[in-house]
Amino acid sequence: MRTLQFDAGNTRLKWLLRENALAVSSGFFCNTEDWGAALPRFLDTVGKLDLVSISMVSSDERLEQIKKYVLATQVVPLYIATAKKESAGVTLSYDAPEKLGVDRWLAMLAAHATSSPDIKVVVDCGTAITVDVLDKNGLHLGGYIVPGISLMKKTLASNTAKLRYVESTDNHNLALGKNTVDCIHHGALMMSLALIDRVVTEHPGSRVILTGGDGGQLESLISVYKEGRVSFMPDLVMDGLEIAAREYKEGCAG
To answer: What is the band of 228 on the pLDDT scale with cuts at 50, 70, 90?
Structure first.
């Protein structure tokens, strides 16, 4: 069984190829790239597929592009993930579950599937930082959405006269800044951590399941890291997509 997964976010289109559910290769395209050239070239290299699964938080136009280029290269079923009220042991708190970002839903499915019986604080650190809490039984208690680290800094730069956006490689320093660049970068890190740590404090004994492009730089800074209660899982959304697609296929077979 060969499955190609796509996770279309606000800045990148990530892909992961699985054989019998095991990841064998992965990569990404930036949203600034010409997908009309890049996707056909890529799809010509992946070989025969049994299923293509898609998580989409980007535009409908992007979704149509993926579908167009996939179906132009081979005949294969498409599964487009949509959040469901109850799935794989997770029950959402949203009255309208389809309004929940599908990437958040998939991350919760994968987090709930981990062997740990703890309350889960599921954190995705990308363009936005999302925090969702699952109780031990998989009930979604709710969540938060705030700007991501880079977005915080870019917002300051675009809405002030003299503050510039400068990317920093000093990703583990929370000290008081002694120059403007450090003040901004350390402040963005501190704000992100304050949210995560507050949620953890309000749910004693919880485990943080962390993912997203900026997750790695926050991992060791989270308050319960030294207690062994932080797990960084870079493919969390893709793992959730695998769970959702498997449930979908079983439903079709039944």
So the answer is: very high
